[in-house]
């Protein structure tokens, strides 16, 4: 019985009495790890875009923005992120990248 809980994050203190509760526990842990993977991937992609914007590298920011859009869209399709949240994050990144490309033209 303990081998089915080998991937749990902590020592199992709650032992379910029913098979359905045991299955739910396994499923929720598996889903937690899956959601954490995609959430982390989205955050990393967003940070990379913002890092490129901070360094004022227009080409790199545009390239990373395209990659981040793909990651965010995949997370939305997989149900990890709500579609409004994904749209909001993409809009924020788009605004930052556009500001970066407009600034050099305004300074000249």
CATH homologous superfamily placement? Ribosomal protein S20
Spans of at least 5 consecutive residues with low confidence: none
Largest sheet: none
Structural class: mainly alpha
Query: How many alpha or pi helices?
Result: 3
The number of domains: 1
- Taken as a percent bin, the fraction of beta residues is under 5%
What is the strand tally?
0
Rg from alpha-carbon coordinates: 20 Å
N-to-C series of helices and strands: HHH
**What share of residues is helical?**
over 70%
CATH topology: Methane Monooxygenase Hydroxylase, Chain G, domain 1
What's the architecture, going by CATH? Up-down Bundle
Explain what the structure shows.
The chain contains three helices and no strands. The radius of gyration is 20 Å and the shape is elongated. The protein has 108 residues and is an all-alpha fold. Helices cover 75% and strands 0% of the residues. The mean pLDDT is 88. It has one domain: Up-down Bundle (Methane Monooxygenase Hydroxylase, Chain G, domain 1), CATH 1.20.58.110. The protein has helices at 19-54, 58-77, 83-107. The longest helix is centred in the middle third of the chain and has 36 residues, at 19-54. Helix 2 packs antiparallel against helix 3. The chain starts with 18 loop residues before the first helix and ends with a helix.
């Amino acid at each position: 019985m303990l081998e089915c809980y080998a991937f749990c994050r902590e020592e199992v203190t709650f032992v379910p009495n029913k098979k359905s509760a045991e299955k739910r526990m396994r499923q929720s842990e598996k889903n937690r790890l899956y959601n954490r993977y995609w959430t982390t991937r989205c955050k990393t992609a967003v940070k990379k875009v913002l890092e490129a914007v901070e360094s004022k590298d227009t080409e790199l920011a545009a390239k990373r923005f395209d990659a981040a859009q793909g990651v965010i869209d995949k997370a939305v399709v997989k149900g990890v992120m709500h579609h409004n949240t994904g749209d909001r994050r993409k809009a924020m990144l788009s605004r930052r990248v556009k500001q970066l490309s407009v600034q050099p033209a305004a300074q000249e």
